[in-house]
Amino acid sequence: METIHWYNFLAAFFAGVSLLNAFPHLVQGLSGNxxxxxxxxxxxxxxxxxxxxxLWAFANLIxxxxxxxxxxxxxxxxxxxxxxxxxxxxxxxxxxxxxxKKMKE
Length: 105
Description:
Blueprint: H1 6-30, H2 50-71, H3 78-104
Helix pairs in contact: 1-2, 1-3
């Protein structure tokens, strides 16, 4: 078994964040809906075009893929898998809270 380093855990966490973040942007982009991205004005709060969302989704997928490979997540290393899932849970909670506030505006 390979040695697991601290940066494998960091890569696993952000792989989870990046891969899960791709889904809402891809769905909204493919549906033709405007949706917030980091490129909107104001960043993350304004709306970006469906094309921008689709491109941002694929950027997240590519980044997430390389982070996942670098993290060496497997079903044999349960702690790495849990850190990967923690990244997914974190971005889910942050997004839910952020969009709930946005809907109240």
